[in-house]
Specification:
The complex is a heterodimer. By secondary structure, chain A is α/β, with parallel strands linked by helices. In chain A, 38% of the residues lie in helices and 17% in strands. The longest helix of chain A is centred in the N-terminal third of the chain and has 15 residues, at 4-18. By secondary structure, chain B is of the alpha/beta class. Chain B has helices at residues 39-64, 79-86, 102-107, 112-119, 154-167, 185-197, 227-231, 244-259, 292-299, 303-314, 319-342, 350-353, and strands spanning 94-97, 143-146, 173-178, 201-207, 210-211, 214-215, 236-240, 265-270. In chain B, α5 (154-167) packs parallel to α6. Chain B starts with 38 loop residues before the first helix and ends in a 10-residue tail after the last helix. The chains are: A alpha/beta, B alpha/beta. At the A-B interface, α4, α6 and α7 of A face α5 and α6 of B.
């Protein structure tokens, strides 16, 4: 059995071993404090020239990785907390995401940016943000979020080997998930998209990364009450191909989206809108619902944190209210 | 110093200038000292600078007539910087520009046809009509991209140098930026990272005293931008940026150091743009202290006229030869404008087809 965190490390090991054009760069890569077991000792195995710990300079270092990606390298930039990655918005949003289009498709920035989400733990407003919806708004920037250990490994490899800039977002709340991993098969990220993780007939639950796990837990609970939920894992948020989600809702007639981010202009709203505009009137039998974070920064106080983060029980209650409105 | 409202007196000089005579347009107006430059070198400098100036004048005319609509930032008056630096560069080097980068592209030998076509948004443009004046690309001559986000390409050039270091090859990366970019924190981050990793990158600051409308006196406590490089232990040369030979000597020293693996360098070239921040006019009195008399004074420090005078005095070229060169360059540009006008626009499918490089179809 391999954990999600160990699967990430396996991906780095695979990339550094098999692809000499890959290197890793970011803060804390020579210390277990920041990225923990997900990158432990890679510098000792592959050298400090290819596993580069850096000054505290998010813009400069991310920009440098973008620059190296223009010349045959496939850098992976690590931001141990996504909150700090906001200081690197220019190289991600203005530069990497736009170079192909604005230079006529003559060049692309094949850089991968790994942003890590840290939920819970009373870490507060600037140590815990999940900003996937912001970045998924940007044309030219692929955004992926693995929900399983296998995807944590295989989507990271696919991201690094993609010729486009990719934001790969992993979530510390998933690090202890385990599964048996088959040998690595390199995937073409352009062909990856939402995937059904659990089949069901009564309602479609859609999540991404950590929120997909909430959906799976909720589906198990609901099953005990005779409700069979289908769980779709978004996996690739941008560009978003919602065909699998639409097909699922066409079958179940009901939809709940569970998003680890905020509500306004968020992923859940986008999924619901995309499904609604592709279904014929009447195909959606129930009012669609969404579960998100409350529209507030993360609190540090324990009781506030307990009501801040949705749980599987929140999802179960939402499904019950939608399927049995009275 | 400015008064409490930020105004400078009408006849205010840069009395506290660390740059001293380099900031004084009444100085350095005589014919250039040609040093030991060869006739071939000098003829190359002169032709390259004339190409840049006449192309930019042509672009200015197209902006004024509204034929060219994309924002065009002209660097007329600053030609010597790019030409002096580029004399040490080849197609394997990695040069990045900013919003005012026609000269950086042309000095490397970037296609005049493709530049003019790009400005008119045509498929034959250097960025296939997708970028306009502010997004130039000519990797075949080493020009690796320009963007208008101030300081945006500085860390990208540092990353290009990191790639060179990983490749163990004797190339260099070059980052052109203006004095305004020194006010962005990422210059500090980039100098620090380049120095601590000892990367082969040349930082070239074209200090023309203005960021958009605002005089450097009102933006920084000193007019010598290279003080930031001093702080990061990066070797500095400060030069008269309207003297192509002086730029070439200083750039050559720093570039050769970088090629030998001795790390980054910082070249501060003092110059002045004759036109405004953006567009064709001279921006007289749009800001503080940009007076007509200043512009006129700086035009007497003309990098091209001073080079041509010295070449004529030395007998490298005569007046008739200079006139013939002007005619020849203007003809090339005239043809480029006509070709760009006749060229097609990008097809509608390119709007979505170029967003992801991985989707590109091999030509």
């Amino acid at each position: 059995m391999t954990s999600y965190a160990a699967a990430i490390r396996e991906a780095f090991f695979y990339l550094l071993k098999n692809h000499k054009e890959c290197f890793c760069i970011g803060q804390g890569l020579w210390s277990p404090w920041y990225v923990g077991s997900s990158m432990q000792d890679l510098d000792k195995e592959f050298g400090k020239e290819r596993v580069i710990d850096t000054p505290v300079s998010e813009w400069g270092v991310t920009g440098a990785a973008v620059g190296a990606s223009l010349f045959g390298y496939r850098p992976i930039v690590i931001h141990p907390r996504m909150d700090f990655m906001l200081l690197a918005t220019d190289p991600i949003v203005n530069q990497a995401a736009k170079w192909s289009h604005m230079l006529g498709g003559r060049v692309g920035a094949g850089v991968t940016i790994r942003g890590i989400v840290n939920r819970h733990g009373e870490q507060g407003a600037q140590h815990s943000q999940a900003l996937h919806a912001w970045y998924a708004h940007i044309p030219g920037l692929r955004v992926v979020m693995p929900a399983t250990a296998r995807d944590a490994r295989d989507l990271l490899i696919a991201s690094a080997l993609c010729d486009d800039p990719v934001l790969y977002i992993d979530d510390r709340d998933c690090y202890d998930l385990t599964e048996d991993l088959p040998p690595v098969v390199e995937m073409d990220l352009r062909r990856e998209g939402p995937r059904i993780l659990r089949e069901g007939r009564d309602i479609t639950l859609v999540g991404a990364s950590y929120s997909t796990q909430l959906c799976l837990q909720a589906a198990q609970c609901l099953s005990q009450d005779g409700i069979e939920a289908e769980v779709v894992d978004v996996r690739v948020l941008n560009p978003l191909d919602n065909s699998a989600i639409v097909a699922s809702v066409r079958k179940t007639g009901a939809l709940v989206c569970v998003d680890g981010g905020w509500r306004n202009c968020g992923l859940a709203g986008e999924i619901i809108a995309g499904v609604c505009e592709r279904l014929a009137p009447g195909e959606m039998k129930r009012t669609p619902g969404r579960i998100t974070l409350p529209d507030a920064p993360a609190p540090t106080s324990k009781p506030l944190e307990q009501i801040y983060y949705p749980t599987a029980e929140t999802v179960v209650a939402k499904v019950q209210s939608i399927l049995s409105p009275n | 110093m400015p008064d409490q409202k930020g105004n400078l007196g009408a006849d205010m000089q840069r009395v506290n200038s660390e740059l001293q005579s380099l900031a004084d347009p009444s100085r350095h107006t005589e014919a250039l000292d040609l040093r030991n430059a060869s006739a071939t070198q000098l003829q190359g400098y002169l032709k390259s600078m004339l190409v840049i100036r006449f192309v930019e004048e042509a672009i200015g005319d197209m902006v004024a007539s509204r034929e060219a609509v994309c924002p065009c930032h002209l660097g007329i008056g600053q030609e010597a910087v790019a030409v002096g630096v580029s004399t040490h560069l080849n197609a394997g080097d990695r040069v990045f520009g900013a919003h005012r980068s026609h000269a950086h592209y042309l000095a490397l030998g970037g296609s005049v046809d493709a530049l003019v076509a790009e400005i008119l948004g045509k498929e034959t443009g250097c960025s296939r009509g997708m970028g306009g004046s502010m997004h130039l690309y000519a990797p075949e001559v080493g020009f690796q991209g320009s963007v208008p986000i101030v300081a945006g390409t500085i860390p990208i050039a540092v990353g290009a140098a990191l790639a060179i270091q990983l490749d163990c090859t004797p190339q260099v990366a070059v980052s052109y930026f203006g004095d305004g970019a020194a006010e962005e924190g990422v210059l500090h981050e980039s100098l620090n990272f380049a120095r601590v990793k000892n990367l082969p990158v040349l930082f070239v600051c074209e200090n023309n005293f203005y960021s958009s409308h605002l005089d450097i006196v009102l933006r920084q406590p000193s007019d010598r931008v290279s003080r930031f490089a001093d702080a990061h232990r990066v070797p500095v040369r400060v030069v008269e940026g309207n003297d192509v030979g002086a730029v070439a000597v200083a750039a050559g020293e720093l570039i050769e150091r970088a090629r030998r693996g001795e790390g980054p360098g910082f070249l501060e070239a003092i110059t002045y743009r004759w036109r405004g921040h953006v567009g064709a006019d001279e921006n007289i009195d749009v800001g503080v202290r940009r007076k007509l008399e200043d512009v006129l004074a700086w035009k007497r420090r003309d990098p091209i006229r001073r080079l041509a005078d010295a070449m004529i005095a030395r007998g490298v070229i005569d007046a008739a030869g200079y006139a013939a060169l002007e005619t020849q360059v203007r003809a090339v540009i005239g043809n480029a404008v006509m070709a760009a006008r006749a060229a097609p626009y990008p097809a509608p499918e390119t709007l979505l087809g170029r967003v992801y490089a991985s989707n590109r179809v091999a030509p």
